[in-house]
Amino acid sequence: VGFVISRYQATLNRYPLLISFQPVISAISGNVGLQSSSIVVRSLALGLASERKFVQSARPELKVGLCIATCMSLLVGGTAFVWYAPLPRGDDGHTWHGASTFGVTIGLGVFVSMLIAAVSGTAAPLLSKRCGFDPSAMGG
């Protein structure tokens, strides 16, 4: 995070709202990954999933992750759009094009981050079980 902030300091100074969404994206993604991991560990424990049938075991959780990522990217991206939209006075320097770009950028960031979290949270317990480790210890 420090590297990214130092490398893009000029951009972050120009768009201060950009940095305000970083904790939101990080927190939402972490929650999705941990929830995916917990569900897969439970499924493994109950015999509903198997590390031998990786794709079949991962598919339901990945579908849910895709659905949640889509919904949250629209919600958070829409919020970013509204926050960056020009004020009625028009003296804030914001444009509708800029607000659209900002909303899409934040929305894509949320979507990609949550999708990666769902994949890694789903795969970690399955791979750890396949390697002979306790999936509940490796999931989080």
Automatic annotation (TrEMBL):
Keyword terms: Magnesium, Membrane, Transmembrane, Transmembrane helix, Transport
Membrane topology: Multi-pass membrane protein
Record GO cellular component, one term: membrane
InterPro entries in the record: SLC41_membr_dom, SLC41_membr_dom_sf
UniProt KW Membrane keyword: yes
Compartments in which it is found: Membrane
Transmembrane segments: 62-84, 104-127
Stretches assigned to the SLC41A/MgtE integral membrane domain: 22-138
Presence of the UniProt keyword Kinase in the record: no
Similarity remark: Belongs to the SLC41A transporter family.
Protein name, as recorded: SLC41A/MgtE integral membrane domain-containing protein
